[in-house]
Amino acid sequence: MKFFIYSRKSVYTGKGESIENQIEMCKQYISSKFPDDVSKDITVYEDEGFSAKNTDRPQFKQMLIDIKLKKPNYVVCYRLDRISRNVSDFSSLIEELNDRSISFICIKEEFDTSKPMGKAMMYIASVFAQLERETIAERVRDNMLMLARTGRWLGGTTPTGYSSEKTQEIILDGKIKTSCQLKDVPEELLVIDIMYKKLLELRSISGVSKFLIRKNIKSRSGKFYSLLGIKEILQNPVYCIADKDSMEYFIEQNSDVCFEEKDCKSNYGLLSYNKRDYRKKNAPRLPKDKWIIAIGKHKGRIPGKQWVEVQNIIESNIPTGKKPSKMHNDYSLLSGLIYCNKCGSRMFAKNRTGRGANKETFDYICNNKLRGNVQLCDCQNINGLLADDTVCEYLINYTNVNSEIYSILNKRKNQTKERLDNPITSIEEKIKKLNTEMDNLINTLSTNNLGEAFIQRINVRITEIDKEITELSNNKKYLEKDLNALNNQELQYDVIINLLSSLKNNYKTLSIYDKRTLIKMIVQKIIWDGQDLHIFIYGG
User: Fold this and answer.
1) What is the domain extent for residue 192?
2) Strand 346-351 and strand 362-366: pairing?
3) Are residues 6 and 138 both part of a single domain?
4) Is the whole-model pTM more than 0.70?
5) DSSP character for 401?
6) Tell me, what DSSP letter sits at residue 510?
7) Which residues contact 85 (CB under 8 A, 6 or more apart)?
8) Dihedral (Cα; 93, 97, 99, 103), 10-degree rounding
9) Last residue of a domain, which of 283, 316, 349?
């Protein structure tokens, strides 16, 4: 019998339910519950330093792969929360195991999904495990709200312009409380003042970026400020003075504002909490109605009225359906699809200015060059119309039935089809042979004068064949499921071939938006090396 043991621990402590202890207890359980005369094949999976909030763990993922390939009889763990505290993740695993007739054993809670009551109790326990996790999260938020009202800096990377320092104060009964607050870094705060001043003057983040690059003003890491970095600074309430204007702004945004107008004095700055969702990948920014806003213990830099005006400028510059971004305009086909070979940035379309310029005259310019001129990248610009015509002509030439791209795509399509057909065809042939053998054996049993020992041997073989057919049928089912991706890949090649034909036959009647869509579905990327365009086609 095959057993998989899974063990996990968030942090190594050297005591308690260590990885080693979990594994040993699981092995002892297997030895006690299964007879000595049963051969045991045990595989162990260990994840040290991973939490149970999700299933993004290397050994857990490997176990899921091996479950499909090796099909164990049992998956064993020490405790339910070693697998997951999320009901959805846990339910998915149990369903996967049930589909493959694999039992799940949790030795601490004594659950065994091979039995109906064990399966029901397992789901109930998983619900309580998630409830515990959500309760902990709620307590953390309540704690955050309480700390926010004190105006403390709760740690983490300090914003540009500040460092963190510890402070102590005596509270009741002579107890000393230690906390952190932001401390000014004057030279960085001067840069912050410049950013806000220039944004109000130029009304453009890229304009601010170009000014900083021209003046050779860099971040604390020694690099030029990125557009996203500048935007983050301009949107950070930490620089905003706590006054009536800033308070009203956040009340309108439905933020949790932890102060009143009477508390706005001495030009203290704001602190914001709960700005990001750290449960998700890359910690995306939460909407302002989830923010907690408090008065900090540091001096603010920007009056509320000016800070709010900056937010309105930034909001007005965000692309909408009525105001497309520079990547999507009504005159270029390749904006954002071309990459600069020198610095790796995308290249965007920009109308020419000056005498003789019109809407149809434009160039593709490297994004770094757009940001900081030749100081960041001196890549040669491309004539926009010429680039568009060159790429379209190249693609249309590819639509010739005898062209190389068609032979490449059809070859890869056929290779994909072979990968789909061969394994399944082989299994079907084996099943067919086994069925033929079983029919012959059944016919033999109908013959008179067969000895009892011979009949017994035939029955044993029939049982073995039936088991083999069942296993092969299951493997076929799982193989068909796993090869769906290859089916999709085969379909993708058909789509690309049809798109190439559509581009040729309908090019003159297509709108610029339809042409752009077709090109982006065919072309993976284009690289400009300063002299030539290198076109990379999906599947090519």
Assistant:
1) 186-316
2) antiparallel
3) yes
4) no
5) T
6) S
7) 52, 53, 129, 130, 132, 133
8) -140
9) 316
